[in-house]
Design brief:
Layout (H helix, E strand, L loop, with lengths): L1 H13 L5 H12 L4 H9 L4 H38 L16 H15 L3 E2 L5 E3 H4 L19 E3 L6 E3 L4 H10 L4 E10 L11 E11 L4 H16 L5 E8 L2 E10 L16 E10 L1 H6 L8 E8 H9 L12 H4 L4
Parallel strand pairs: 1-5
Antiparallel strand pairs: 2-4, 3-4, 5-6, 6-10, 7-8, 8-9, 9-10
Helix pairs in contact: 1-4, 2-4, 3-4, 5-10
Bound molecules: phenylalanine.
Phenylalanine binds next to strand 9 and strand 10.
Length: 338
């Protein structure tokens, strides 16, 4: 009986089949009702007790080997059969498709590069922020209506200890001023969140780059020159800027900056609503209260801050009108930036 088992094991190991029929014949011969294995298991009943253990093990090895052989051949026959039946082997291979940077990443880099040429370093901070860094240190008094300017997603709401998704990257200004002594010259890129209805013009998250310059004798003229240089580098040498009075709790005075419309050059077109100007950022002189909140002596130091939306910049550079395109991952859109 041992000899028979060894013979069948060898036969199994050598077995090859090139069609499903051949394989099926092998299966019936080995595992069928009247097959070799059933015969052997029948004969096993009469094996002497002292041999049962050894022969039983051998039988199991054989049974497993047969089953495995059948599975392996079946598998490979199935795959080869689909290839030969359904595949047109004369078809050319697919083109190699290379990825591309996301437009937001491209414009982010462009903005940061311009400011790094002016000596600004990059700093980042957390997206889940406490009330102090997002609001209070930035001169938003508790219950002040200015907090409603930015519809906030709260993570935990418990008064002065609120935890929220940051509504602007100004929170990173505070973090940097708290740990660094002036002069400070830094830009803060990052994702921010606001609880707004998603539409062509607004989204629940977008990206900002904010900048901060603190030193002795920093003036509004420095702010203007810095932003003019930025606008020319970003949108072309002939770009003009204008500053309109505005309000932010953390800057005084505050302004909003427009650039001459980069599509029509300022003569008026539908894009700039025939005004010749498009708004690009908010800015101002850092409010002395903010400096004091962060441990910087406002009698010695002054500074300016500015903040812009990367989506807005991308919109201006590439005339992307629908904000939602930036987060839909539609390759027809994204591949245009490769
Ligand atoms: N944090 C402001 C916003 O999110 C932008 C800003 C930054 C304005 C710095 C002035 C100075 O709208």
């Amino acid at each position: 009986m041992k000899l028979k088992i060894d013979q069948l094991l060898e036969e199994t190991q050598c077995f090859q089949a090139s069609t499903m029929d051949e394989l099926e014949q092998f299966r019936v011969k080995m595992l069928g009702k009247k097959g070799e294995l059933n015969d052997l298991f029948e004969a096993f009943k009469t094996v002497a007790n002292e041999e049962k253990r050894e022969i039983g093990q051998k039988l199991n090895v054989l049974k497993n080997a047969v089953q495995e052989k059948i599975d392996v051949i079946k598998n490979s026959l199935e795959t080869t059969e689909t290839v030969s039946e359904n595949t047109d082997l004369t078809r050319p291979v697919n083109d190699f498709v290379s990825g591309s940077r996301h437009p937001i990443a491209l414009v982010r880099k462009e903005i940061l590069d311009i400011f790094s040429r002016m000596g600004y370093v990059v700093a980042e901070g957390p997206e889940i922020e406490d009330d102090w860094h997002n609001f209070t240190a930035l001169n938003f008094p508790p219950e002040h209506p200015a907090r409603d300017m930015q519809d906030t997603f709260f993570v935990e709401k418990n008064g002065v200890n609120d935890i929220a998704l940051r509504t602007h990257t100004s929170s990173v200004q505070v973090r940097v001023m708290e740990i660094q002594k002036p002069p400070i010259r830094a830009v803060f890129p990052g994702r921010v969140y606001r609880n707004e209805a998603i539409s062509v013009r607004s989204h629940v998250f977008f990206h900002q780059v904010e900048g901060l310059y603190i030193d002795k004798n920093v003036s509004f003229a420095d702010l203007r020159e810095t932003l003019l240089y930025f606008a020319k580098e970003m949108f072309g040498e002939e770009t003009k800027i204008r500053l309109r009075p505005s309000f932010f709790p953390f800057t005084e005075p505050s302004a909003e900056m427009d650039i001459s419309c980069n599509l029509c050059g300022g003569t008026g077109c539908p894009f700039c609503k025939h005004t010749g100007w498009v708004e690009i950022l908010g800015c101002g002189m850092v409010d002395p209260n903010v400096l004091e909140n962060c441990g910087i002596d406002s009698n010695v130091y002054s500074g300016f801050a500015f903040g812009m939306g990367i989506e807005r910049m991308t919109n201006l550079k590439y005339t992307v009108k629908d904000l939602r395109l930036f987060s839909e991952n539609d390759l027809r859109f994204l591949s245009q930036f490769s």
